[in-house]
Amino acid sequence: THFGFETIAEALKEQRVGAVFSSVASSYDSMNDFMSLGIHRLWKDHFVRTLNPGRNPLTSPPSSQDQGWNILDIAGGTGDIAFRMLDHASTLNHDAHTKVTVADINPDMLAEGRKRALNTPYARSPRLAFIEANAEALDAIPDNSVDLYTVAFGIRNFTHKDVALREAFRVLKPGGVFACLEFSKVNNALFDAMYQRWSFGAIPLIGQLVAGDRDSYQYLVESIARFPSQAEFSGMIRDAGFLVPGKGYEDLTNGIAAIHKGVKP
Ligand code: SAM
Question: What ipTM describes this predicted complex?
């Protein structure tokens, strides 16, 4: 049946996404560097700075003044965003309590994250945890328990983005923040023409030459092209029940990436 085909297609997509991330887990940084010419590091720094994680009397949600924030970093993979958030909370907000749970569907990415955590101060600390979980069914995370939900370069890989957004809404406390950093749509025609040539022309070729893996890189480029525009994605965040401040997003580097935020009322 039609539905049968859809289910098979979805299962294949999940399998494909799994295979892509298993095959790139250890070369993950170089992959991101190729995809963004190294700029993803600056975007991630900026993302974390705008969220200002950690107990801070002026910016913390009121419920978390004493224990620090409870942060859930979905599709957190190798811990890139989690380590930055813990560093920010500790050094800028002098908060030694804020904790981050890194959730990812792929055990190979989590293993890489655990390995990298050994080079941080958080390796054996209760402030950092890794769990294997699908963003679309966060059964281990109670309702209304999270102060900040982050997802960086993850949501475009989810099979049902609307379901994941509703799960984000469920687990966040009222007043809690949903924040997403993702590749997006370039907002300048000339720049876009160059960007399309770079992503469809060069990236799969570089993937083949450097990692011997053209298919994974081709998948990543296509998943970026298929992801909704900034305004469409803002609409999806609203549809999940969030309040969206202002226009709802901030473009980074002419919209190559964008930050979206929503607040649970
Ligand atoms: N957030 C990290 C970063 O910015 O460096 C990792 C991003 S990586 C491009 C995408 C991650 O999404 C992979 O680790 C992949 O396993 C994970 N992922 C894909 N589908 C997922 C799902 N349904 N639930 C949770 N994680 C998922």
Answer: 0.99
